[in-house]
Every structure is written in structure tokens, then in C-alpha cells.
Specification:
Distance between the termini: 31 Å
Helix content: 25-40%
Number of helices: 19
């Protein structure tokens, strides 16, 4: 789409002025340097979204008639008008009123420092988070010598004594569950004023392309704006408040927290100090938040525990926060960051933030049609979807919102994205807001590679490295095994023990599942140094544990994992007792197959052949495989048990189809069909009722190339499991559904498992016309496509490493083979015959 154009005619009253002219058409702002224009002559401006550039975008007729000029314009008389302004191509969340509750607020984040922007005009709240603000400390939970009970437990399970074995596991294997002990809110930044709760006009928005949350309103003839962003280059949260009349801004600024913090004010600075705890128990990190206020015009003074800013023309608030989690003194960190940010000044802060953000975000663009609906607020559009309406453009925005959230909650050097990313307003959040590694953290990172955000996975590699330290001890002391192990959950203190109830805790495959992301990263990015130095050592240690853990099934002689659960599910024994633990549940077997296949694939890439690879290859050959039940469904357990919850939220035994690659539609059609029947059975009994489980189902339907079922469930994800600000809800809010939904949309458009690129494998009728650019594929390819009437019109494939590329186009029976060269782009626009290019 051609860039929008703003035409301005300026009559310079003081044409010798050296001050720049700042012009803002909501929600864009740009600066005109003196001497850039001839007097009394129209000029067309084009450009990007940088604060120091010439560029503008208007998204509604209301905006097209609302030009706001800064105080610099007082030197000039001006006539301005807009021409040729199509609807914006940028993904945007906008609303006609402020957030009434937390799940309506808009998130900003730089991976480490987050904010939830409510947008109220009178008492503006920005809820704050810092990614290392955790209660608790490392605690021993391993039970040394627990492995001595394993032979007896396994014999019970092989003999069908499931309830007795489970009881013994909880008595001898399971460690202590400690709750609450989790990730906590940093607190709240409040901007109080005398503004009415019902201004003359109002708009709030989140621009996903710039990473800026903006609120605008008009009251008593004065137009106000408030911008909020979390800068990665400067590692601070910035708030900018402006008005179009001088001296119009008078506010009080406060910092507070629900517990365990004190705030002081001095000169133009607020300081909040505290230590995380749960009512004095589970003492955690010491933390500090420091805020500095800079007023242009007017005055700033300390008033008790707050700052009073009076009669200002504009105000910039800069907030830095830190903890001692990594051994640094918080005050040193906040002081350093604030000084660097203040020295840079607002224009540089904004410009560097936007430049950094867009350099990552703009790698991928998606158009699905229906842009005319952008004239309505997101909450109204979401209501229409809930009523059964179709809104492909909202799904495109949802896709980009998921990418935005991953950028905001996981960047190199930060903590990995937790159950809520980084956005949590509670001292004791649900499930501690920690790291659940039996599906949730893996789903958080499903979209990373395919949506061109590969480096956002680095915190996940850090998590695996940290788990290896404790996980070796758990493997040795708890299970008398080599390698490392982790179970269903962990937190910032990286414990790896089985804890709590057997139903969810007796599951030793968390590290193995998470480590598959390392192999995936190599397949997408083809980085041999990464594979050798970072991925292979983790894969090998994870595999070593299972080589010691697997035992022979006395009935078949095949290797099985156990004791273990099919995560959080319950089966009924022949005596109709509820039980959870078996030997060789399907998900364990599939994860072990995946792990051994991946580590052997990595060894082959690195030219490694040794005793370990021989052992892994033998175990893979003797591993018990998948089974199909009498009703045609893939069996979840080694016996054909009835399920206590036929619509259970987990669909663990489908792992081999997605995210794994053990089952494929063409390679193992019978198993793929058995997974289909399992999905249909789950859904017919109420499955998919949580956001993340619905997202997983969409990915599974996409792998089955069932476009309409994938779309039906994607629509249900929006209609039933999406909050007003597009956050996913479990319920309550849980971010994995956002990431899983984003990955699912990509999976519907492009697949690259099984050694081939499949273009538009699950394109629904609702997306009959569209385009996507910048998706990544395994093998080191980058794909852009457009389609019309549901048929691929053109595809461009960038080969980064010169690998041979096998391409399948939706509906085609045969593959095309492309012999590529590194750095070359290949265009496929004659797609009728299969052949070699």
C-alpha cells in the first residue's frame, strides 16, 4: 500500500525562527525543521513512524479532521489539510473508552520491564512489572534415595495395581508443593489529575508496529495526549504527556504496591523500595523502582510521597526498575539507566525505541482482508465475533498481537515468558505465574521461529541451562540416573523435582519436551555453532536420563517410560477406580521417540558417532510405539481405559502430530487418522474449553490440513477464550493461548516439517484472498506468498543457506524441487506443472 500523504500549507509569521515545528495528527507526530519548506506552498510528506521523521497516518474520519499542533506552532499561522489517506495498514488495537479492569488494559514491554496501560483521563494507572521480581528462594525438594522404591512401584503398575502404586508414589517419590511462591507485580504508577472521566472526545490505542500505547482526549477546548512505551535500547518505561495549549498540564504522580514496599519523594524523583514476600514468608528478591519527572514549562516539586507537576506544557516521566536477582545492587542499576535515558531526551528515547521495535516487528506482515472493520473499536469487533460474525482482519491483528507479546515478554538477556508473559498485577497470581513445562512454556515459544522472532527464544535456552544444574542432581539423587530431568513445573529458582500430587507432578518429561526447541531452532536457522555448543549438550543430557529411566515391559520386551502420567488426565480402571499413573503412557513414548530422533539427527549433523549414539539408536529401535484402540482412536495409555473426563483439556497423546513429527498425514496416514478421531472425541465431549487447549487443537487441525476445522476452532478461540484487550483466558488470563493461536495461524499458512515446504496447507474459505511476508521455514528458508480465490497466486522463497528445497502447493499431489543458492530468492508464479526449477 502506498504511504499516506499529509499536505500542509504553512505561512511563516516568524520565518527566521530556529525552533522546529512539531505537528501531530493523532496518533502520529513529526517534526519539521526550519528551512525545510518554502512559504505559501503545499508540500507532500511521506515517511516512517519515527518521532523525528516526516510521516503520518490517519485511521478514521474523526482523526482526519483533528490536527493537533504543539506549542512551537505559536510562532506560525498555518493551514493544514489531509489528502489521499487510506485506512492504515498497521495492526492496531483501539478503543473508545478507558480500561475498566486489568484485562482491558493495554500491554507494553521490552522483555524485562512491562506495563499495563489503563488510559483513564483522571486517575491514569499503569500497572508495572519487572521480570525477576519473584518471592521465595532456592529450596531442596529432591528426595534422596527415592529410586529405591521404583522397582516395586513399576511391578504394581505392570500388575494393574494402579491405585496402590499411585498411593506409594505420593508417599515415597513426590516432594513438597510450596504455594504461594511466585512472580509478583512491581506495583502501580498513578497519574492523577482533575480531568473529567467523561471528556469531550476520547481514544486509546496500542500501535503494534511502534510498540506505543497512546491515549488522547479533548476537554474544555484543550487536546491532551499520553504516550507510554517500554524501551529496550534504554531499558526504561517512558510516559510522555502533551497538550496543545501552554500550561495546561497539572498532575500528581505516585508509585505504590499492594504490599512490601515504601515510596519516598525528593525533588523531581520518586523512589519505591521493597522485598518480595508472601505476608512475610517466602522472602525473595529486593527491588527498586525509580521515577524521574521532567516538565517543559511549569514546575515539579515533591509533595509527601508523590510529585506535583503544575502548569506544564509537556511532561516526560521515566521509570527504571531492578532487583538483586542476578546479584546486582538495584539502586546502581536504576540510577545508571535513568541517567542515560534523561541524557538522551524524549525525542531520542522515542526514536530509538520505535527503530528497535520496528526492526523486529516488521519482519512479518499478514493481510487476510476486511480492513474496513478497523473503523470499529476492538471490543466491538470482538463482540461481533462472539455473536457469530466473521472478521479475518481481527485474526490478522491477533496474529501480530501474539508476535508483539513475545517481543514484549522475552528478549535476549531477560527471563523467559512465564504463564502471563511478564504482565501480572497480583502478589499471589494463579499457579504462581511460574513456568509450567508440560505444555505451557513450550506453547509460549511455538511461534518464535516461524514468525521470524528466533532470537526471542534465547531466554528459553537460559532456562534449559539453569534446569540442567538442578536437574542433574534430581536425576542422580531421586532416580539414580545420568543426565538431567525436570518435571511439570519450575520457577525462577529452577527446581526440577516431582512435587505435589502424582496426577500432575509424576511426569519426568518436561526437560525432554523443552529441549526439542533447540533442535527446532537449528532446523530453522542452520547454525552449526549453536547446534554444537548449545543444543547438542542439552539434548544429549536429556536423552541420557531416559536411557537410564526406560525399562522393559515384561509382556512385550519393549522399552517404556514410567511411572508417569498422561499430563493431568485421569483414567478408570476395570474396577472403575480413578487412577492417573501407568507405565508407557502415549505422550511419554512420543516425547522419548522425538528426543532420541532429534539427538541422533543433531549428532549426524555434527559428525558424531560414539557409544552414546549407539545406545540411543538401540533404544529408539526398541521403544514401544503408538497404539490404535478398538474405536479407531489413538490410545492415551498402554491399555484401553475409559476416561474420567472425555473432554479433558490436555490432548497429550497427539504430541506426535504436533508439535512432534512422528505422525504425518502422508507418512503415517493411519496414525494421523487415529489422532483425528481422538480430537473429534475430545471436542464432542466439551474439549478445548481453555484458551491454550483450543490453540493446540487448531495447530493439530492445521497439521491434518483440515482448513475448516482449524478455522472453526480459531473462531472459537476468539469468541470464547479472548478478553477485551485480546489477552487469552484459561480462564483466568494465561498468555500461552495467544502464542499458540499465533503459531496456529502460521501453521495454517505454511508448514515445513517432514522435509518439505507446504504452502497454504490449511487455508480456510474465509481467507480467500490475502498475503503474508517473512515467515520462516525449516531448512533456512523465508517465505512470502499471496493468494486469490483461495489459490496461491505467487510465492517467493529466500534461501539463506543454499539447501535443496522441496515445495508442495496446497491441492497439488507432487512436490517441486528447487536447487537453491545461498542468498537467492526464488519466485514461483507458474505453479501448474510439478517439476524442477
Amino acid at each position: 500500500m502506498e504511504s499516506p500523504v499529509l499536505a500542509i500549507v504553512l505561512n511563516w509569521t516568524h520565518h527566521h525562527s530556529t525552533e522546529p515545528l512539531t505537528v501531530r495528527v493523532p496518533p502520529r507526530r513529526f517534526v519539521i525543521a526550519p528551512g525545510s519548506f518554502e512559504r505559501d506552498r503545499p508540500h507532500n510528506l511521506r515517511g516512517n513512524d519515527s518521532a523525528m521523521s516526516l510521516g503520518v497516518s490517519a485511521r478514521s474520519s474523526e482523526e482526519r479532521s483533528s490536527l493537533v499542533f504543539s506549542k512551537s506552532l505559536m510562532r506560525f499561522s498555518a493551514l493544514a489539510f489531509l489528502v489521499a489517506l487510506p485506512l492504515s495498514s498497521e495492526p492496531l488495537l483501539w478503543y473508545s473508552g478507558p480500561a475498566a479492569e486489568w484485562v482491558e488494559a493495554l500491554p507494553v514491554g521490552n522483555g524485562r520491564l512491562g506495563g499495563m496501560v489503563f488510559g483513564a483521563t483522571g486517575n491514569g494507572r499503569i500497572q508495572l512489572n519487572e521480570d525477576t521480581l519473584w518471592a521465595g528462594a532456592p529450596q531442596e525438594r529432591d528426595i534422596a534415595g527415592a529410586f529405591r522404591h521404583l522397582p516395586e512401584i513399576r511391578k504394581m503398575l505392570f500388575d494393574g495395581k494402579y491405585v496402590e502404586a499411585e498411593r506409594m508414589i505420593e508417599e515415597t517419590i513426590m516432594g513438597e508443593r510450596i504455594f504461594p511462591k511466585g512472580y509478583q507485580t512491581l506495583g502501580d504508577l498513578w497519574i492523577d489529575s482533575a480531568h473529567s472521566a467523561s471528556p469531550d472526545s476520547y481514544r486509546r490505542e496500542l500501535d503494534l508496529e511502534t510498540g506505543i500505547a497512546r491515549t488522547e482526549w479533548t476537554e474544555d477546548g484543550v487536546s491532551y495526549s499520553r504516550e507510554v512505551f517500554s524501551s529496550a535500547p534504554h531499558d526504561v518505561l517512558v510516559v510522555r504527556i502533551e497538550a496543545d495549549q501552554p500550561g495546561a498540564i497539572s498532575i500528581r504522580v505516585r508509585l505504590d504496591r499492594p504490599a512490601d514496599a515504601t515510596t519516598t519523594a525528593a525533588d523531581s524523583e520518586l523512589l519505591m523500595l521493597g522485598r518480595a514476600s508472601h505476608e512475610g514468608q517466602q522472602l525473595g528478591v529486593r527491588f527498586e523502582a525509580r521515577l524521574r519527572a521532567d516538565a517543559e514549562g511549569g514546575s515539579v516539586r515533591a509533595d509527601g510521597k508523590s510529585l506535583r507537576i503544575s502548569a506544564a506544557d509537556a511532561v516526560t516521566l521515566i521509570l527504571a526498575a531492578a532487583t538483586d536477582y542476578r546479584g546486582h545492587e538495584p539502586s546502581d542499576e536504576t540510577t545508571r539507566r535513568l541517567k542515560a535515558a534523561e541524557d538522551a531526551g524524549f525525542a531520542v528515547l522515542r526514536d530509538s525505541h520505535v527503530t528497535d521495535h520496528r526492526a523486529i516487528f516488521d519482519r512479518v506482515a499478514l493481510e487476510l482482508g476486511g480492513k474496513e472493520k478497523r473503523q470499529s473499536p476492538i471490543d466491538q469487533r470482538l463482540q461481533a465475533v462472539r455473536a457469530g460474525g466473521s472478521d479475518p482482519d481481527l485474526l490478522a491483528t491477533y496474529f501480530q498481537f501474539g508476535r508483539y507479546l513475545l517481543m514484549g515478554s522475552s528478549r535476549p538477556g531477560t527471563m523467559p515468558a512465564n504463564l502471563q508473559g511478564i504482565w501480572n498485577d497480583k502478589i499471589a497470581p494463579p499457579w504462581n505465574s511460574d513456568y509450567h513445562i508440560n505444555i505451557n512454556i513450550q506453547m509460549n515459544y511455538w511461534p518464535a521461529d516461524v514468525t521470524n522472532l528466533s532470537e526471542m527464544q534465547e531466554p528459553l535456552w537460559d532456562l534449559l541451562d539453569n534446569l540442567r544444574v538442578r536437574g542433574r542432581k534430581t536425576a542422580r539423587d531421586h532416580y539414580n540416573a545420568r543426565g538431567f530431568v525436570a518435571h511439570h513445573t519450575t520457577d525462577a529458582w529452577w527446581w526440577t523435582s516431582p512435587i505435589g500430587r502424582a496426577q500432575y507432578g509424576m511426569w519426568p518429561a518436561g526437560a525432554a519436551w523443552t529441549s526439542r526447541h533447540l533442535w527446532e531452532a537449528y532446523q530453522f536457522n542452520q547454525d552449526k555453532a549453536f547446534l554444537r555448543e548449545r543444543a547438542y549438550p542439552v539434548l544429549k543430557e536429556a536423552a541420557e536420563f531416559f536411557l537410564d529411566w526406560l525399562v522393559e515391559d515384561p509382556r512385550t520386551g519393549e522399552l517404556v517410560s514410567g511411572p508417569s502420567t498422561s499430563p493431568e488426565n485421569i483414567f478408570l480402571t476395570k474396577d472403575m477406580e480413578r487412577a492417573r499413573i501407568t507405565m508407557g503412557p502415549a505422550m511419554d513414548q512420543q516425547i522419548v521417540w522425538d528426543l532420541l530422533a532429534n539427538v541422533l539427527g543433531a549428532a549426524n549433523e555434527l559428525g558424531i558417532s560414539d557409544n552414546f549414539t549407539a545406545e540411543a539408536r538401540e533404544a529408539l529401535a526398541n521403544l514401544a510405539g503408538p497404539q490404535i484402540g478398538s474405536d479407531g482412536r489413538l490410545m492415551e495409555w498402554r491399555e484401553e481405559f475409559a476416561e474420567a473426563e472425555p473432554g479433558h483439556r490436555h490432548i497429550s497423546h497427539a504430541f506426535g502430530l504436533h508439535p512432534g513429527e512422528q505422525f504425518t498425514l502422508r507418512g503415517t496416514p493411519a496414525l494421523a487418522e487415529a489422532v483425528r478421531k481422538s480430537i473429534e472425541h475430545r471436542l464432542s465431549n466439551g474439549g478445548g474449553h481453555t484458551g491454550w487447549s483450543r490453540a493446540w487443537l487448531i495447530n493439530l487441525w492445521a497439521r491434518l490440513e483440515d482448513a475448516e476445522n482449524a478455522y472453526e476452532n480459531l473462531h472459537a478461540l476468539l469468541a470464547k477464550s479472548t478478553l477485551e484487550n485480546l489477552f487469552d483466558t484459561h480462564p483466568p488470563f494465561q498468555i500461552d493461548g495467544n502464542f499458540g493461536g499465533t503459531a496456529a495461524i502460521a501453521e495454517m499458512l505454511l508448514q515445513s516439517h517432514g522435509g518439505e515446504l507446504h504452502l497454504l496447507p490449511a487455508l480456510p474459505a474465509e481467507w480467500s484472498r490475502g498475503s503474508v511476508t517473512g515467515l520462516k521455514a525449516r531448512g533456512g528458508f523465508e517465505v512470502s506468498m499471496s493468494w486469490v480465490d483461495g489459490r496461491l497466486q505467487k510465492a517467493e522463497i529466500l534461501s539463506r543457506f543454499g539447501k535443496q528445497c522441496l515445495v508442495r502447493v496446497a491441492g497439488a499431489k507432487e512436490l517441486r524441487t528447487i536447487a537453491t543458492s545461498a542468498g537467492q530468492t526464488y519466485s514461483l508464479d507458474d505453479l501448474s506443472p510439478a517439476g524442477t526449477i
